[in-house]
Predict the 3D structure of the following.
Amino acid sequence: MRTGRRPWTAAFALTAGAALAVLAAVVAPTSAQASVPVAAQPTGTITVFAAASLTGVFNGPMKAAFEKRYPGTTVVYTFGGSPTLVTQIRQGAPADVLATADVPNMNNAISNGSIAVRRTVPLNPVLFARNTMAIAMPKNNPARIRTLQDLARPGVRVGMCAAGVPCGTNARLLLAKNGVSVTPVNLTTNVTQLLAQVQSGDLDAGIVFQTDVRSAHPPVASVLIPGANNVFSDYPIAVVNGAPNPVGARAFVDYVRYTISAQGILRAWGFAKPW
């Protein structure tokens, strides 16, 4: 999931069920699989449930670019921790699109029937971005954090996302990979909450996605983790079963995954390609 292998191979080892194996076949289209033309011009409101770490890029340039490309559409977002979004959709919250910050949470949405797997074009789900981890500190860095190992010093107040939330899963993998033992003083349900606690000075450090460090307002100090020591998370996106606006949903998914403009926006915000 967070090594050099395709992320879904390790993800499937963590959870059982035929639906998980199916996702491996659909989320990584080859370069020959181009954008799928939308059958009808999308219009109306498109409701997107997206991971909190996508707030800046989706709610800003992605929304503007998509609505310019498709006049008459309005993209409305619900941002939150990926497990929370999956639960809300399962419980009946109206959504057209789901974008999670890792593969396992999309697997859960497949398993509970919220996402229908499609292995022929147009694929569903598809991977569209990759993210890595970083350490965020208040701007003046009062605890003088310079390395991952500094988080283990006595008295350093470290926060993480809760287990099962992608930023929390990745934080724990990052610490384990580097042999660092940390007891967090606080756990949050999404990365936006964690970053806010760092910005306010309630925490000396938080392990967040590196894109959150780059886009933080107000700015934060940070320690970037070298690639060989880091872990990554791949982001899948899918049309939701029973989407109120299925044409708009398909258009948004295809735009984010396949267009040069959307992928350029993601690169500008620090997201990498997952393929």
